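ugh ok so i messed up the first submission bc i forgot one of the chains. this is the corrected input, ALL of the components this time, i swear. 604 residues overall. if the numbers dont match what u have on ur side tell me asap before i send this to the collaborators (the ones from the other lab, u know who)
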Amino acid sequence: MSNDADLSVPPAEDRLVIGIGQDGRGDDVAGREAVRRLAARHVAPCVLSDGEPGRLLELFARAPRIWVVDAVRSGAPPGTLHRYEGPGLPLNRGPGPASTHGLSLGDAIDIALALDRQPARLVVHGIEAGPVTLGEGLSSAVARAVPRLVARLRDELAAAGDALAARGAGPRA
Amino acid sequence: MTERTIAVDYLARVEGEGALKVRLDGARVDAVELRIFEPPRFFEAFLRGRSYAEAPDVTARICGICPVAYQMSSCHAMERAIGLCVDNGVRALRRLLYCGEWIESHTLHIYLLHAPDFLGVPDAVHLAREQPEAVRRGLALKQVGNRLMTLLGGREIHPVNVRIGGFYRCPSRSELAAVRPEIVRAIDLAEETVRFAASLPFPPGEEDYEFVSLRHPEEYPMNEGEVVSSAGMRWPVDDFESAFEEVQVPHSNALHSVRRGGGSYLVGPLARYALNRDRLTPRARRLADEVGLEPVVRNPARAIVVRAIEVLLACEEALRLIDAYREPPAPFVAPPPGWRGGVGAAITEAPRGMLYHRYRVGPSGLIEEAKIVAPTSQNQKRIEDDVRHLVERSLALDDAHLTAACERAIRHHDPCISCATHFLRLDVERR
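and heres the new structure output, hopefully the right one now
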């Protein structure tokens, strides 16, 4: 429940990394934590979100290429990394047991499609969550997996062509 | 006699996590239990031993949808404990920030959560496919709310610019003027939203509510006022706990709030509107008349129209506040040196209704006791009553249709279950 620094996003970037999750709810924060660490490496513009779909749709409009990083539940062991790209993302629709919102990331993506607002490229990185207990931090399995996810994101964004785009990434002044 | 049990394991399109159980014995409704099974929230306990100054930031994290409400109630309560008076400029900025939250929260509920119930579509995704222009309008309007929250709160979720006594930094006149064109456009969108909401087909069914809200001598209530009831009662904020009590029920982690000596009551848009219609802006009142919104709305389905009227009011208020804004001489006032603690309570109007905070702060400035009564815990008993009446008059429906109707009855009130759960003290009796 600490007041983490928001991450600044200059308008009209060509890509944006969105870390979704909530602090103080166990592994729910995994995606947010990975993007917080990625931002410190100045690889790409990063922003943190609570995943509310209306706000996600606004973030999708900020750049043509979007990377979303979120905790997921698929039944795999906690800390397992997932990556999805392209049509037919296997994401839940509607609320799940760990949802704090009436709508999910999958719903936000579907609404973007229906409104013709989908990003030109959308990549979702998931990290399998263990417990999402209120007042807790990351579980040890997920904490160990976060650096691997950060490295994977860093390599992928570098391979995407503009590794040195350090514009604007970093803690807000 | 056939027994029927209607169970909804997860309530779709409701903030947080909840479930409903209805038990029927033939034509008799034996029990209606709105269950809250989200892990209990430790916030009241978490606040104890922390500095009085941390209350706005800590409580803002209770809910991602209404953080401003938590910040406002905690600031006002602490300022009453300290005896602080804030500048009029700070007061105006707080109301402007609250307008942003009302716009955002109500618009989310109107378009993405509630409207699908009346249009025969399962969810917002289908609504976006069938009526993309409506959803685009909703998102554009919601974005204006976000913009105000970002400008004043420092960021759109879990705002960090609010502090006891004011703000860490106040915007300049020109910063506020920069959003003026967006607000002007939002007023038109809000008016279209009222017409959209009023055109929806509503199921019949009126409830005999006791409405409770704040009432202010001049304004539609947000930050200040006394507590009034449609039963003709009025109480100063300091009497809230003697007029209302929270009772523990076995089936829920949340506490049920009831009026002492009375029963359930309703807070939120229907209550605010019924008790403060004369405080609406002239344009909002005219439009309410035009779309046929009676002075007291007792059909909970039509709360969507009342929310839309409140969005229009909030947009108009935002414009008025921006135009009249004078930057305060200082962004905040600090407690006087040598302040030795005290007790303070406050109520503000969260989008979903009255949010009560009371704090006891010790001589070293540490919180010794915190009490938070969220709108959804006040409405929970009343929502169960709504569901009971709905079931009683819908017994002919099969289970699937009855279940869907119950879910809709709950969604009319936009319950925020994340806010409603409390940490309960457990007393163990050993023999």
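quick check: Chain A touches chain B at residues 1, 3, 6, 22-24, 49-50, 52-55, 57-58, 93-97, 99-103, 107, 110-111, 114-116, 133-135, 172 (CB under 8 Å). that seems consistent at least. Chain A is about 30% helix and 20% strand.
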